[in-house]
Each structure stands twice: as C-alpha cells, then as structure tokens.
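Practice problem: predict the structure.
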Amino acid sequence: MGDFVKFYVGGEYQSRFLDYYYDKEPTQKGLITRHYTLNVGVQASLPESKRLRALHLSSCSIKELPQNIAHLLHLRYLDLSFNHDLKKLPKAICSLLHLQTLNLNGCDSLQKLPKDIGKLVNLLYLEILWTTSLSYLPKGIATLTMLRRLNRFFGNSSANNSKACNLGDLENLNKIRGHITIDGLGAEADVSGAKKASLKNKKDLLGLELWFSFVGSQRKDEAVLEALEAPPGLQGLGIFYYQGESFPNWMTALQNLTHVMLADCSNCSDLPPLGKLLALQSLTIKNMSKVNMVGSGFLGIQLNNAAAGAESSGSSSSQAFPKLQELCFEKLNNWENWIGIGDDGDCAKVIMPSLSSLSIINCSKLRTIPNYIKLKTNLSGGIKRCPSLDLSQHQLSSIFQGTTTTDKVVHNGSDKILTSL
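Answer:
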C-alpha cells in the first residue's frame, strides 16, 4: 500500500491507483493496478489491466459503458451509481464471471438489465434503488442464489412474462439480507407468486417495503399481503398504497419490529393492534382517509373492567407499545376520536410508557385524544393544523415541552416525520 498516485492519460480523465502491489515476477513497470477510480471525463476509455479488481465510476455522467468492460476478467466490484444518463448496460458485462458487487443505485434512466445477467453466478450484491425507469428484472435473477443483497424487486410487470421475474422467482433467493423494496404489487397473478416467494424463509431480511401500485380491475391486495408473510426477525416494515380493508395477523407476530410505516392505505378503517409489538420504537401512519376512530383495538391489550373502545376506569392487564418512542399521525382526514381505556394515572404507565415524541398533523376533524396522552409530559413533536381538537393551551403546554404560543393548535420541535425505514 502507498500514497495515492495521480496521473493523466491522454487528457481524457484523471485516475487514481488506490491499491497496488509488486508481482512475484515484476512487470517492467513493477506495479500492478488492482483498484481504479475514474474522476473526470464522460466517455473515457477503461483501463486495460486484466488484474483489476474494483472499478468505481459513480456520478461520472456516463451515458454508455464500453464493450471492452469484458476485458476486466477479474473484476469483483463495479460501482456505476448515480450516472443519470445511463440507459442500458452492455451485454459484455455478463462476461464478468467473478463480479460480486454491481451498484446501480440512482441510475434513474436505466431501463433494463441484460437478459443474461444470470451468468453472473458469483454476484452477491445487486444495488438498484432509485432506478425509476426500471420496470422489471430479467428472469436470470432467479438463478443468482448466492445473492446477499437485492434491494429492489417487482411484482406484476408490464413486460412479457418470458422476460420478467415474478414474485415466485424469489423462492430460492434465501440468502438475501438487509432491506428489500417490492414494487408494483396487487395483481391477481401476484397471489400465487407471493406464496411461492416464501419471504418468511429469508431469515436475514431486516427491512421490507411493500408498494401496491397495480392498476386494474383485478386487484387482490388483501390476498397478496397475506401471502407475503415476513420473516420473524424483521425489524422494519412499510406498507404503501395498500387497497385492502384489513391487515394480516402476521404483522403483530413480528416481535422484532422496531419501525413501522403505514401510508396511503385508503380502504382501511381500523388500525391493526400494533400495541402488541413489544419492540416497536417508531410508528408513522399517514393518509388513511377511512379511519374515523382509534380505540383500544389499536393498543392490542385486554381490558378488565371496560368494553373495548370506550373511556372508563378500567385498567389493562399488560403494557401496550412498551418501547414506542416516536408516534406520528398525518393527514387522517376523517379521524374524529382517539379513545383510551381509563381516566386514572395508571393508564399512562402501561400505555406507551417510553413515548418521547408525538406528532399529529393535518387531522382536521380530530376532536379528542385519550387520557394516556394527556397525562404525558415534556413530549417533543406537537400538534399542527388540527382545528377541531378540544385542548386548552394549558393542556398543550403540559404535554409538549417548550410551548409558549397562545394558539391552541401548535407544533413544537422539528417537522421531522419518518419517510423511510
């Protein structure tokens, strides 16, 4: 190893040797390139070294990757991320049989991957977040059983079925880990594929985002979500644009979940009993227009002396949301009542005892909040644009730290709302 060696070649680009060594039988120049970074230039030629192991071409305004990429036989790492004009990859890239990492994050003009990508049998990491022009993955992905990271996948696709992966092609990709986003869900054809995908068998999966965006009369959102049962070790879950009327029971069995976001689930009138999630730390619920009431069902606890959904002097038999720290409700346009379970101080001890941040934003019809919230003190966050809420300035000042305004509908702290897992 040594200091960076900088030099120019033909005025086309500046490159750096990031790592080098002496061969057992040194070449005439002595040094053999292993890692290379392209810093300047749009259509610069690639290095010719067959010993090259890593090539970093992120944010280089590349429009097309040259065919001579195939000469880099020992390449293991290729970073093409955030080249916004890159529309396709050459077939030659499928000749890089030793390639382990292919990073295409942020290549938002990329329209497709090479159909022979299945030849990259040693590929471990395929990064394709923010590739907004990409609408399907080629069938060959299903054969890459060594994959450890596949951060984006597609449900129903407009592409010909002979070319495109479907949900069922996830079946044998059980080594994937970290986070995966699955787009385009909801088609009838996704139901059988979702069952075959066996997400619950992907034990190393920690984050899952499910986006329901299929357009058509044969939407099967509830059946698809039921079949996409997540693995028990999942820590983050996001469900977006889901059009079913209820959520599956497997959600509340995920006792390692720390972050949940439910957004634009416009047909759901009842929230799932998320209070059963003992590890949950952050919960965001946005744009759910059919929710009219949030009651004891949301808490997921048994009541001893009160009927579920009504305020009383009853107490709970267990804690609800024991580790929840951040709670955000935003744009629940028809939400009128948030009902608790008791009017004594004990309810604040058993319901959300760890809560430190509460945000309620753009819930114009909300009139009441439960005692277990009113009894909290020094919360960050705040209440904004909820004109129907019947709370005095004194009550608001007691709940939220640092309140000085005389407006009863206030917002304290930052506008930070969770937007991703």
